[in-house]
Amino acid sequence: MTARRHPALAAADPALAELVAAEERLQADTLRLIPSENYVSAAVLEASGTVLQNKYSEGYPGRRYYEGQQNIDRIEALAVERAKGLFGVDHANVQPYSGSPANLAVYLAFAQPGDTVMGMALPMGGHLTHGWGVSATGSWFRGVQYGVSAQTGLIDYDAVRDLALAERPKIIFCGGTALPRTIDFAAFAEIAREAGSVLVADVAHIAGLIAGGAHPSPVPYADVVSTTTHKTLRGPRGAMLMCREEHAKAIDKAVFPGLQGGPHNQTTAGIAVALQEAAQPSFTAYAHAVVANAKALAAELLARGFDLVSGGTDNHLILIDLTGQDVPGKVAAKALDRAGIVVNYNTVPFDPRKPFDPSGIRIGTPSLTSRGLTPGHMPQVAEWIARAVTAARTADESALAVVRKEVADLMAQYPAPGLPL
């Protein structure tokens, strides 16, 4: 299989080729529930592995520092126009290497070192680059954080407003990595207006849901929209910054030459393909199916006695507090992995445990939806999770092995996009 799938790689480096083949098999026969992961199409994979890798292209279309850009300029312009059309924005920059560099460009565009910035606290569901202390953004800027209500697990917008008016941050980030509920972008925009702040919506997790109409868009409200291009958008590992025309020059200058050299042209091509795919009616159906699966899975988990942060989900993501199951999140995640169910351990709001050994696990439905699973499959998925968590608590490896086989049997019936198996 390795030689047929990757003949040049198999001939040049058999050891690496076998590792790639092993990863293909692993992605094929496991149930992938990490909400930030997905399967890209064969077309995205092909675009990302082209001879565009060979070309250096510092600058922007029509304004490069290298010659021979006749095709590269058209590829990047195509990706930009597709992003603008899909999200309805004035300006798009498709060059950021990933989500964290994209967010760093926002700081460079709108703030000076030492300025106050505001974002959701990491343990509450925010992202490292929203001013959290261990990140460069928390070292170079004065980060202040908001959280969620201990009673509801939801953002308290009155508390956010009070903090913003007291601190007057240069930048306010909304969005995060473990938020199972809809973000009220209009409320954040009003708070940012009152505080005199630039509002940045980090929609890395929900960009595909927004593109497919399954989540409200921040575009009418935010000054800047930052997103990765993978996750729910089903593109390659890259990022985009989108903004109003008045901020276009500042954003472009911050990305290049502020933070980066030449863009990764092969990734730009993959982004262009993913944006084209996301503009199709089938992607709209996909985005809504992701949410339907998440809601169905949340209901099944609740019925089995699991404690879900905020009581459920509005999007693709479910955050499970395992305190009541008497098993730490890390122990559960590793047991689930042995059972063929791939998740990540995660802190939950007000978690008494340490981040590397937290109380929760984070799961999501983008990948399983890409394989064609429906709400009708979610009772089985919830049952597998329950059985694996019980096995983790009782150290029952034979029970995990049984689940592993059942998972592989179901996955064989639903081939993953882009995979050979």
TrEMBL record:
(6S)-5,6,7,8-tetrahydrofolate binds at L122, G126, H127, L128, E245. Keywords: Amino-acid biosynthesis, Cytoplasm, One-carbon metabolism, Pyridoxal phosphate, Transferase. It is an enzyme of class 2 (transferase). SUPFAM superfamilies: PLP-dependent transferases. It catalyses: (6R)-5,10-methylene-5,6,7,8-tetrahydrofolate + glycine + H2O = (6S)-5,6,7,8-tetrahydrofolate + L-serine. CDD domains: SHMT. Its cofactor is pyridoxal 5'-phosphate. The keyword Hydrolase does not apply. It is found in: Cytoplasm. Catalyzes the reversible interconversion of serine and glycine with tetrahydrofolate (THF) serving as the one-carbon carrier. This reaction serves as the major source of one-carbon groups required for the biosynthesis of purines, thymidylate, methionine, and other important biomolecules. Also exhibits THF-independent aldolase activity toward beta-hydroxyamino acids, producing glycine and aldehydes, via a retro-aldol mechanism. This is Serine hydroxymethyltransferase.
